Amino acid sequence: MAHFYDEEVFVRMSSPVSATAMAAFFSLLLVGCATPKQPADIHWITLDTLSSSIQKDAPMAVGFDIDDTVLFSSPCFYAGQQKYSPGSNDYLKNTEFWTETNGGCDRYSIPKDVARALIAMHQQRGDTLYFITGRPHTEGEQVTAILQQAFAIKNMQPVVFTSGPEKTRFIHDRGLHVYYGDSDADITSAQAAGARAIRVMRAANSTYKPLPVNGAFGEEVLVDSTH
């Protein structure tokens, strides 16, 4: 997930949340956690290396984060900030922003080249693909349809909205063998669920700052995956 929310906890729009609780949460979000040290040796992998490593495996379930992993969606988040809270991140607490973003803004998000390659490789293998995002669920979401069209997905599963960064249960319950993500929460959730965690690098011009430290948790990192 990404753009300031993939590392935080959202509640579904149908659940009432006190202003105090939301304010406290976003205060923690903006403070952030201590940045892990740059690892001495990053476990870099290429698409060819990855493909070879699973060549003999039977078709399996794999998962992807959305923002900054398969889509460069900063245009939606930048527009939302300008519309709802110029100069602050309060727009992330606005249900109208999430309804608009999930309701079709991703038509203006840019599919990442690395995602096209990964998805094509997994579809050729006959794997089942799941997309798990930290965004909150909203009625009338179009993310599922947009992803299906953008990446020509044959057996599209409904997008899973977790309303927060913790994805362990969602990864585990779907029996995912591999999970791709850009955020630290993506990596730690996949590792906790027993899945192979692979870092897709976040673009430097993403609105989701600060950038994570690639390889911070010993995960594999895809080379040339910022775009």
Report on this model:
It is a single chain. The model is unreliable at 4-36 (pLDDT under 50). The chain is of the alpha/beta class and 227 residues long. It is globular, with a radius of gyration of 17 Å. The strands form 2 sheets. The chain has a 7-stranded parallel sheet with strand order 1-9-8-7-2-5-6. It has a two-stranded antiparallel sheet with strand order 3-4. The chain has 8 helices and 9 strands. The longest helix is centred in the N-terminal third of the chain and has 13 residues, at 19-31. The chain has one domain: HAD superfamily/HAD-like (Rossmann fold, 3-Layer(aba) Sandwich), CATH 3.40.50.1000.
Topology, please?
Elements: H1 19-31, E1 43-45, H2 47-53, E2 61-64, E3 71-72, H3 74-84, H4 95-102, E4 110-111, H5 113-125, E5 128-133, H6 143-151, E6 160-161, H7 168-173, E7 176-181, H8 184-192, E8 196-199, E9 220-222
Parallel strand pairs: 1-9, 2-5, 2-7, 5-6, 7-8, 8-9
Antiparallel strand pairs: 3-4
